Protein 1
Amino acid sequence: MPKQPRSRLMKVVRASTLLAPVFLLTSCAKIPGFGYEEGLSSVNETTLPLWQGAWITAAVVGLFTLGLILWVAIFHRKKSAAFPKQTQYNIPIEVVYTLVPLLIVAVLFAYTARDQSRITTPASNTVMHDISVNGIQWSWQFTYPEAGSNVTVTGTPSQPPVLYVPVGERVRFTLTSSDVVHGFWIPAFMIQLQNLPGVTNHLEFTANKIGTYKGFCNILCGRDHSEMRFSVKVVTPAEYQSYLLELKAAQS
């Protein structure tokens, strides 16, 4: 009889450990963005579900691990001075805790590779604009071929440049570097691609929401790396064309 309450408590702990992930996934109708807003760009539409899935996987693993820790702490405490029974190995458990992490990593890797391919595969038939992004120590140069071959906006650490992008229209970015490796990073859009000296990289995406977003270099590139910032201003197509005309007039 004295063991009955303990047995019931053990069942409750085990059930809670198994059901916690279910409650986590079904407690709310909408999965949070875990720091990111949904639908800001075409990249978000691909990357955000992967980001959410990774966090949910981590939460499930964490809760299951916490349940095991609590179960051991509650039901395997020292009860007497007797030396506990020693077990050399447990092959089924060792196989499980080897294969399960490998399976989790393999699934996450497969989804990552799939989404990376979707993001980096060019879609030339839908590209409407071209913009060149050149990294320099320690700022950015934005070139708009539609406004003229030599129309370039150059920023400085004290005056970060503004990158204009039309909402709802796909843009192809050509990424280069004049000196060292830089990282073209727009956190809100979940976008990052390196600017490499001697190498030309390409990135395509569509901005879906009007607004101003922060951009950074996220590759340590020298003394003023922390000042290598820029802003992305997403405007209407009409405002974008007006901006191109302003740039063209300023160069003439």
Protein 2
Amino acid sequence: MIGDRQAQFQFYKLYSKAMYNISYRITNNEMDAEDVLQESFVSAFKNMNKYQGTASIGAWLKRIVINTAINTVKKRKVELLPIEEHDYFPELESTDDSELYLNVDKIRNAVQKLPDGYRLVFSLYLLEGYDHGEIASILEITESTSKSQYNRSKKKLKEILKEEVLYNG
């Protein structure tokens, strides 16, 4: 595929939408997501000879996109706050959420409102399937920081969603 423009175009058409969505979830910015997408495909085309076939080519490309998106967010100087080992985040009080009507758009919008650090860990853990050890390694933080950011993101997300229901019905 190196140098074969038609094959590159077909590869781009096949994966660009999914990779843009991943990039957008991590960067939370359309222009950054587009830049990440372009940079990722250029990198993939340049490094196609390094693809070893140990994972699907889509998974290989996804890893490039995620790493590029994370680097973009890191450039914004996202602060992931370390926590002390004794910090404890109890689960939110049990409430009757059966009345809480949510649709996909409301949830997507609420995730976009999360602070960068929360959204990044939330997206990597819940949406991209990384475990806290992998997230810690990728983001150069401790595993406990990853866990706390995830717990805080869930709490914040619930607050945002409840606000949306209260103010927007």
Protein 3
Amino acid sequence: MALAGREAVVIGAGIAGLALATALARRGAHVRVLERSDRITEVGAGLQIAPNGAAVLFALGHAEALAGAGIPARAVRLRDGGDGRAVIRLDLDRAGFGHGYHLIHRGDLIALLAQGARAAGVEIRTGCAVDRIEHGPGGYALHGPEGMPGRVGLLLAADGLHSRLRRSLNPSAAPFFTGQVAWRAVIPESIAPERAEAEVFMGPGRHLVSYPLRGGRARNIVAVEERSDWADEGWHHEDDPQNLRRAFAGFGGPVPAWLRRTDRVHLWGLFRHPVATAWHDGRGAAILGDAAHPTLPFLAQGANMALEDAWVLASLLDRHDDTATALAAFQTARQGRVRRIVEAANRNARAYHLQGVARKIAHLGLRLAGRVAPGAPLRRFDWLYRHDVTRQFP
């Protein structure tokens, strides 16, 4: 029980940071979370919490809160973008994945994680942007606004794509534009939550993902288009909804009605960032979540990988008396799996955007698979969804 009574600072009050803080505190650590924003607000849109991520939320004691804030997804349905016809339905109920597959607004997930962290004794400080980190005798000195903690011996950065610690550990890891941009929006909806499915509408050079949120009162939309001109990274760039409508004017089924109800959208460029080569400094600092392994959103695993990271890192820090050994073990335990997930997400992007004969052949193959062996397509993801880090690292 190496964490008992130990002081730890976590940078970032996102999914990875709050889950990690709770996992550390439940093992006896005294944890402070530093969040650069002035308050924890409802940021982002919908998330898909797959069984591998839900396993961590259950282990952290959030099963009831997740059931209250999220919607269980019965299936993932792939559709032809042009006419909206079903290509294949992946039956999540039939697959029998443990812990379920959940659709939830990011703001609601952050709220339940923050409540759980505070209940575990975590101190969350907002308005604390860490401008500079220095290591010296006695640990790490954090520079920023007044009220920063004194020197800390265990520093864990879950502060996303632009993490200062990531850049210091991996100075040459430059991202590149993928030639794709994504719009996101949340629109009003009225659907019985027990009928919830995630739907993917696939078209040449573009696709659109949608699913209900918040008890069926809202609908999440993420639409991706290939293009030569790029947009900035980040979730906060507003765009004209008419641009989204024009990009998906050829789509059928329910898509046109959804887009007519869309009055506010955000647009961002999709950049590929390499999985970090170095996740820790060999002393007492490490990165996790998007800071270590940003991913494209085509497998809906960013939040799930963050939850897995949080659990594994806390478990290994508690298992090893030597911090450097624990952090090295964390990178070894996680790096291969996250690389596999990131590459699978990259392949999905290509599969969704097929054109011409290749698209027709692929859709025909999926339709046949759905009729002949309906469970087979999902079994290809057993390695992903049935992976339970809470059993692997108790």
Protein 4
Amino acid sequence: MTTIVVSGDRLSAADVVAVARGGDDVEVGPQVAARMEPARRVVADAVTRGDVVYGITTGFGALASTRVEPAESAAMQVALLRSHAAGVGPALPDDQVRAMLLLRARTLAQGHSGVRVEVVQGLVDLLRHDILPVVPGQGSVGASGDLAPFAHLALPLIGEGTVRVEGVEMPAAAALAQAGLTPLVLQPKEGLSLLNGTEGMLAMLVLGLDRAHRIVRAADLAAALSVEALLGSARPFAPEIHALRPHPGQAESARRIRAALQGSEIVASHRDDFQHAVQDAYSLRCAPQVHGAAADVLAFGDAVAERELGAVVDNPIVFPETGEVVSAGNFHGEPLAFALDFAAIAIAEVASISERRTDRILDPVRSAGLPPFLATRPGLDSGYMIAQYTAAALVAENRVLCHPASVDSIPTSGLQEDHVSMGWGAGRKLGGVLDNATRVVAVELLCAAEGLDRRPLRPGVGTAAVHAAIRRVVPPLEHDRPPGPAIEAIAALLTAGVLDDAVAP
């Protein structure tokens, strides 16, 4: 365990993942108070003078032209949190809530929000004590950021709302008291700054990309196992081929498949037998082109996330150097919405080609002599026939989920917010696609490992390591049994990174 310091500077995606998964501690850097104080003073002075400043001495959204007396500015912040806590549906998972707390603390610590260091400390205290706000998963349009989710995230800071401690839900006030924490009394602009921002979408993107990269790497390994199980050729993965079409993801995917097949007696047994097969099916020989294209899309998402991890996404933005408080649009989620939609499409394609390889392994006509559906007693047993149905169903579901949310803007707040990103919805869909794709690739790994058992020669070094990892949780198929638990066991290996660990980089 290490400690991630919230200083206001850029965080890495790895930092976010480590905190979100509950592994790393968090603390506020020693210079944060000094960094935040100039902007806080600008806000305080504006309230004292009675300046007209959005969200400080005015209402919000369509009520931006409604004047609020300076004496009521602080009370308005509490009303803001309460009114915006309109989320519905099942609560977000713990890892996403942790990521949101960390990212919101980092943004405020940058010193362009005009809030006190106590607000950042309050968010970090929730993390350190693992007091996780219960945040309903539906209700954001990615407009002024993720308003409804962030209202639920912020209410516990003032002792309101519901939290989860060690899996048990309780009133926030009770959890704070139990941890020896004092609820915050909000000052001007602090409620608004707790709501405005894109860190909910960013949390989905960072955590989703981490999972997506694992799926692509696992799909490379699954493809290598399938090549062996189907007596395919390793020639399509030769580096000189991919140098002629220099997409980085394609070259890396081919390298991983080639490395996994290194030393394979199975591949070597028919390397020079040109009558064995003139060419393999697309799902085998085009795996690097498809997996690699997906990896390049994920790399685009990585670049978006990296920029966002150092960005100011509050509104209004405070410029301490000039004393200006400017209402602008950095809270708009469009960059994240696009990245989330693109990632979902890319991973859906990885799952789609994986399912095609599974179908080929199970089909007695196209499986290079493997028993029908890998059944030990075909006819009496069905083998893994229905596992392919499951993969097909998940691939079909992904096609529906890949409709881009980012093109579905819907106006809110009396047409003041007349174009919104729908990035939150894009993130929710990505989560479903990742769940489905993980299981689709797990089905291929299950069937390819079984196919490998039916080949008498030694597999490659990498494929042998993956096969061994699978066999530690799923025994060979002797007679029919429910495939569901085996699929879930292999999916768990994939998610935990066990397959990554089994093979050299």
